[in-house]
Design goal:
The complex is a heterodimer of chains A (224) and B (253). Chain A is an all-alpha fold and 224 residues long. In chain A, 83% of the residues lie in helices and 0% in strands. Chain B is of the alpha/beta class. Classes of the chains: A mainly alpha (224), B alpha/beta (253).
């Protein structure tokens, strides 16, 4: 038994809750692109409704973190873990918002057919989700090397985004009538690109948790 | 920039054969609050008492190394220990006012040392000291009252007033709040922040939150060794030593 068994259990629970939030958010990203692909309006509405659960989860995590700070006076590494959880929970909630945004775009497109088949968009979603899952894994394992490596993959997401952007521009040039539909898809891609950026922030928090250093892990940023 | 008040060079301290401090080297800056933390028996109070030679009277106690105050070795032959203790005052764990009036408690040191020439000067010095200890407003209407009739928090501030009445340069505090309630504790901490504008303060505390709240520098002692000494905010957010981390997060000690 350690001296602070109760505290350690609570601290572990807080991190577990954050991981649950992480998997809710990762699934939301995949689902959002999936319902878009299937043009599933009901699915989109459900996803939008489910975002409330993500928000509520984040608030609960924040509350629990604050209670731990107030009642247990955590210091040093413990304090950094709690600070990181607060920050990561915020990033996750925002990624959840991007998923909700994609679901909303699906509703806005409504009956209209997509201007192009979705190929790179699901790739972006897969990549972002994979980065997210590994970033959380790095947090669990306190793996600084992994956390430092992941942001470089953000460049791949940016490349996909650039690709989608250029492709959609050619569609618009060929047929100005599809500006609206192209713009919707561009927003979808933009949301995914932002989601991957947020993963980079999570990686920064992992490094902070382990080393106490606050540094920016900048993958090359998109030219857009 | 803060000037160096104390320089400690390879301090070893023995109670007979028992080595209480082992190879401590550090500098303590003027007009800063330096907190010493560590579990009971780690040597932090012994260390504090080396700074004004309070350990001298303990039979069999012996110090090696050099303790420099303003670059002068305070253990050198010929050092006037009374004058040293005037320059380096001390406040103890339990308030220990003399069983006299508030006025006489504060006037005690100046009278013994002959610091004032007449009653007016003495009164002025007592008032300044009580003001400096943030006690004046609470006692000014009855300076003749028995010091022991004050609350514990007031008594401790009285002891601080008594300490600063002899114009010290350094104030050592050995767990100054451990007998006080939380409000009185916060009052003393606030007072310490005011005092550091004029004095070098070194505090020993068991209360890590207090060290974190009040000090600029923190030294962590463990089994007679100084494990880590750094700026307080570094020590409590990202200590460099595993042992420090374990202690301040409550996993060792």
């Amino acid at each position: 038994m350690t001296i602070r068994e109760t505290f350690e259990r609570e601290l572990q629970r807080l991190q577990d809750e954050m991981l649950v939030l992480g998997s809710m958010v990762g699934k939301a990203i995949t689902d959002a692109v999936d319902v878009l692909k299937r043009r599933d309006m009901e699915g989109s509405r459900q996803l939008i409704a489910q975002d409330r659960l993500i928000n509520e989860k984040r608030f609960r995590i924040e509350e629990e973190a604050l209670v731990l700070i107030a009642t247990q006076q955590p210091m040093a590494g413990d304090l950094r873990v709690i600070a990181a959880v607060l920050d990561i929970a915020h990033e996750l909630e925002r990624i959840g918002d991007y998923a909700k945004g994609i679901a909303k775009i699906n509703l806005m497109i409504g009956d209209q057919p997509l201007v192009k088949p979705l190929v790179d968009v699901p790739r972006m979603a897969d990549k972002s989700r994979s980065m997210l899952e590994r970033a959380l894994d790095a947090f669990v394992r306190r793996d600084v090397e992994l956390a430092r490596a992941i942001p470089a993959e953000d460049d791949e997401v940016d490349v996909l985004y650039d690709q989608i952007y250029r492709e959609l521009i050619t569609y618009i040039l060929a047929d100005p009538g599809c500006i609206e539909g192209a713009n919707y898809l561009l927003w979808v891609a933009h949301n995914l690109e932002r989601a991957a950026d947020r993963v980079t922030n999570i990686c920064e928090r992992v490094v902070f948790t382990v080393t106490g250093e606050m540094l920016e892990l900048d993958g090359k940023s998109s030219g857009l | 920039m803060h000037t160096i008040k104390f320089s400690l060079e390879h301090i070893y301290f023995y109670y007979g054969k028992y080595m209480a401090l082992s190879d401590i080297s550090m500098t303590i800056l003027d007009r800063q609050i330096t907190a010493l933390i560590g579990p009971s028996g780690c040597g932090k109070s012994t260390f504090l008492r080396c700074l004004n030679r309070m350990n001298d009277t303990i039979p069999g106690a012996r110090l090696e190394g050099r303790v420099l105050l303003d670059n002068q070795d305070i253990y050198a032959p010929g050092v006037d220990v009374v004058n040293l203790r005037r320059r380096v005052g001390m406040v103890f764990q339990r308030p220990n006012p003399f069983p006299q009036s508030v006025f006489d408690n504060v006037a005690f040191g100046p009278r013994v040392l002959g610091l004032t020439r007449n009653k007016d000067e003495l009164y002025w010095l007592v008032e300044q000291s009580l003001r400096g200890a943030a006690l004046w407003d609470e006692v000014k209407d009855n300076l003749k009252q028995d010091a022991l009739s004050l609350s514990l928090g007031q008594q401790q501030r009285l002891c601080i007033a008594r300490a600063i009445a002899v114009s010290p340069e350094v104030i050592l505090m050995d767990e100054p709040c451990s007998a006080l309630d939380p409000i009185a504790t916060l009052e003393i901490e606030e007072l310490m922040r005011q005092l550091k504008e004029q004095y070098c303060i070194v505090i020993v505390t068991h209360n890590m939150q207090q060290a974190a709240r009040v000090s600029d520098w923190t030294g962590f002692f463990w089994l007679g060794k100084l494990v880590e000494f750094d700026e307080t905010q570094s020590v409590f957010t990202r200590p460099s030593q595993k042992l420090t981390e374990d202690y301040i997060t409550g996993r060792a000690g």
